[in-house]
Amino acid sequence: MLTANETKAALAANGPLGQMSTFDHENVVFCNDNVTGLKAIIAIHNTVLGPALGGTRMWPYATEAEALTDALRLSRGMSYKAAVAGLNLGGGKAVIIGDSRTQKTEGMMRRFGKFVNSLNGKYITAEDVGIGTKDMEHVFMETKHVTGIPPALGGSGDPSPVTAYGVYVSMKASAKERWGNDSLAGKKVGVQGVGHVGAALVDYLMKEGAKVTITDIYEDKIAEVIKLHPTVEVVAGDKFLDLDMDIYAPCALGATVNNDSLSRLKCSIICGAANNQLADENVHGKIVMEKGIIYAPDYVVNAGGLINVYSEVAKYGRDNAMAQTENIYHTTAAIFALAKKENIPTFMAANRTAEARIAAIAHLRTKR
Ligand code: NAD
User: Fold this and answer.
1) For the chain, how many structural domains are there in total?
2) Which atom of ligand 1 is nearest to the CA of 194?
3) Half-sphere exposure of 147 toward its Cβ, with a 13 Å CA cutoff?
4) By residue range, what is the domain housing residue 145?
5) Does residue 194 have its Cβ closer than 6 Å to ligand 1?
6) Cβ contacts of residue 237 below 8 Å, gap of 6+?
7) Do 213 and 336 belong to one domain?
8) Which of 22, 167, 172, 328 minimizes the number of CB atoms within 10 Å of its CB?
9) Which of 102, 125, 157 finishes a domain?
């Protein structure tokens, strides 16, 4: 596995992690199985609030150090997301090194299930990039510490509609902050990426009377939306960022709020589903603030999916998950209020909120 220098380099690449000793990772475990070809890492960032829940990503990482960096970064993000959403969950993430289209087998996923099981519930897994519900069924054969399994097996089903609802209510809270009124009627909203979450978000926006423009790299995704909403406008990807829009909703990939986009965007609000929207929090989170754009922090906005899979652990249904997701409206508003009070960027207000909750509960644990 990794040499000492590679491990050091991977940790250093995580920047802020090194500065936040209270929130360092609790466990990082490696699994190497020659028979199935499984090479996996599980990173458990923090379990103060509860077991570490986070998806498994299968990706052909160029090096083991790159895989470790991803696991460390993503697991920390899960701790923050769960903390701000008010869930009794910690943050963890697993990565499997390999090509999910050509190298994944039932044997590999079941071996991974045994690996998850060896942590005795300290880590609970779910789907992420390169991993689907079928894979989780295989994992479920070897461990009960798994979520995101199909409804037929007692799972919570596709979390995307719940995530989309959270984005929608967060966008309303952002509108209220910006214009003093949370109605989205007549607002020009640009949705970048109309996959599972983006398409469901468009449904909510159209119902409320927003003027929606979409873009996607796949024609079939666009066609599905237009079939339901013929008045939605479509724009090519290279023209999207120059649009005259009130609200920019990134619902495709991360790091789209960067030097290039910030020199072109004319929006008042950024609020969307994508993870890690700010290419560099400390740089672009501050520029957004200086430009007077309201940025609704991504992990606050998109917590509906996590709230939904947590329903499998906490044993509540979809209605309850939707009700909890509706609360993202108030959470978003509280983050804006803190940012204003402290005169700090909104991403920082979200991070502080997460860290304060984890620290408070950690303190509680030391009391009899
Ligand atoms: P998805 O793969 O179903 O949809 C993404 C869409 O973006 C696809 O239609 C894809 O063609 C499009 N796309 C990719 N690159 C693009 C580009 N450069 N320009 C325009 N469109 C592009 O994924 P999803 O489940 O809808 O998730 C969307 C985002 O939200 C992801 O970043 C994901 O990590 C995040 N997220 C999703 C959930 C969930 O419940 N699904 C929860 C939390 C966060």
Assistant:
1) 2
2) 9
3) 26
4) 24-75+90-157
5) yes
6) 215, 216, 217
7) yes
8) 22
9) 157
